[in-house]
Specification:
The chain is an alpha/beta fold and 218 residues long. The protein has two domains: 36 residues; 161 residues, no CATH class. 38% of the residues lie in helices and 20% in strands. Strands 2-1-3-5-4 form a five-stranded mixed beta sheet. Helix 1 runs parallel beside helix 3 and helix 2 packs antiparallel against helix 3. The model has no long low-confidence stretch (mean pLDDT 92).
């Protein structure tokens, strides 16, 4: 017979909550330090150097997942680090996320940065100003690739409901050197390894595979 785990006493709970307060203060101090470093990095960049670096973002989250253990859910860990990345980029230079029907995924990826919701995917894509560091988050459920695309695709994610989304950036967003590519082939969106591209493909961009799936409401 398994013995029941004794409930913590009021004194135990008080001590644990005090310990949480200490941890929170340490976390806040480290977060301030992280953002101060990000701000300094932004100051060293030239006006034309991108603040969003897609492959670096994938690497940072993959590193955290590789070392992760304990009670914190993986989805929580990913969301925290994605919001940290999005906020750090905004500290370096303000940018806007443009969406049509993918608001939930955009919030998971970027947190409380400026997001503009458009009636259609083509309008969201068209809102990427020339030379800006803005991003469009678009769902494969909307055929946004049927019209000429001047932005470049730099990331792909899968949602827990099976939908796939593409992140496209203006010229102020960094490109990816990832091993996967997104192209339009025979009027359809086509995802493949870079080595499998053909001369007839209209290449939209490259990306590194994401190490996580984005949770959305069921």
């Amino acid at each position: 017979m398994v013995s029941p785990v004794p409930s913590p006493s009021p004194d135990d709970l008080f001590a644990l909550r005090e310990r949480l307060d200490v941890v929170d203060r340490d976390l806040h101090r480290l977060l301030r330090e992280r953002f101060a470093i990000a701000e300094t990095i932004g100051m060293t960049k030239g006006p034309d150097e991108p603040i969003i670096r897609p492959d670096r973002e994938v690497e940072v989250v993959a590193n955290r997942l590789r070392l992760h253990e304990g009670a914190m859910p993986r989805d929580t860990l990913v969301h925290i680090w994605r919001v940290l990345i999005g906020g750090a980029c905004a500290v370096q230079r303000p940018y806007t996320i443009h969406v049509s029907g993918t608001l939930e995924a955009a919030r998971y990826l970027y947190g409380p940065v400026t997001i503009v919701r458009w009636p259609t995917a083509s309008e969201a894509l068209g809102a990427l100003a020339d030379g800006s560091g803005d991003v469009a988050v678009l769902s494969d459920a909307e055929r946004w690739w049927d019209e000429p695309v001047s932005a470049h695709a730099f990331a792909r994610f899968e949602l827990t409901d099976g939908t796939r989304i593409t992140l496209l950036g203006g010229s102020g967003v960094g490109t990816s050197n990832g091993p996967r590519a997104l192209a339009v082939r025979n009027d359809r969106l086509h995802e493949c390894d870079v080595a499998d591209l053909s001369d007839e493909d209209d290449i939209l961009g490259r990306f590194a595979p994401s190490p996580f799936t984005i949770p959305v409401a069921q």
